[in-house]
Automatic annotation (TrEMBL):
Biological source species: Pseudaquabacterium pictum
Major subcellular site: cytoplasm
Swiss-Prot/TrEMBL keywords: Coiled coil, Cytoplasm, Protein biosynthesis
Keyword Cell division: no
GO molecular function: ribosomal large subunit binding
One Pfam entry name: RRF
Domain Ribosome recycling factor as annotated: residue spans: 21-184
Gene3D superfamilies associated with the record: 3.30.1360.40, Ribosome-recycling factor
HAMAP family: RRF (MF_00040)
Protein name (database record): Ribosome-recycling factor
The keyword Lyase belongs to this UniProt entry's keyword annotation: no
Length: 186
């Protein structure tokens, strides 16, 4: 493994950490409706649990209402029950084959709780990034120990890994700050 390989691997893994954080933040609901909120809700479909998006069309009716259109007639009640029993605090209403899921307004206390959840997710992402930095530095030290690289090259590579870590942590902070602002906006 060369220095370039180590840096490339660290960069790829850090980018995946950012993507995972974005995915986690997307699931945290704000006052606005977002079809991705229902991604983690599963429905019983012929004996197996599948995400709602695989058995119904999930879209937005307006800024505060999600519509769920089941592809099969008998699934409406099961989907409605799955949404109601999820820990999202949503109360779906059936209108024929269409299920409307209104997003309740968030209270000030709930908004503060959600910002804590966002900060915690951001902190977890930073820990993951720092672990990747440590891993890359260990690989670099191993190369130095095997005399595959010079001390100067190893030091330079460690500095570059640190700069990459700093950029990634700054991006995490930016994402967390944007999500907090989105949650606190009334």
């Amino acid at each position: 493994m060369t220095i370039a390989d180590i840096k490339k691997t660290a960069e790829t893994k850090m980018a995946k950490s950012i993507d995972a954080l974005k995915n986690d933040l997307q699931k945290i609901r704000t006052g606005r409706a977002h079809p991705g909120i229902l991604d983690q809700v599963s429905v019983d479909y012929y004996g197996s649990m599948v995400p709602i998006s695989q058995v119904a069309n999930v879209s937005l009716l307006d800024a505060r209402t999600i519509s769920v259109q089941p592809w099969e007639k008998g699934l409406g009640a099961k989907i409605e029950k799955a949404i109601r029993e999820s820990d999202l605090g949503l109360n779906p209403a059936s209108q024929g084959d269409l299920i409307r899921v209104p997003m309740p307004a968030l209270t000030e206390e709930r908004r503060r709780d959600l910002t804590k959840v966002v900060r915690h997710a951001g902190e977890d992402a930073k820990v993951a990034v720092r672990n990747l930095r440590r891993e890359a530095n260990e690989h670099l030290k191993k190369l130095l120990k095997e005399k595959a690289v010079t001390e100067d090259d190893e030091r330079r590579a460690q500095d570059e890994v640190q700069k990459l870590t700093d950029r990634t942590v700054a991006e995490v902070d930016k994402l967390v700050h944007a999500k907090e602002a989105e949650i606190m906006a009334v």
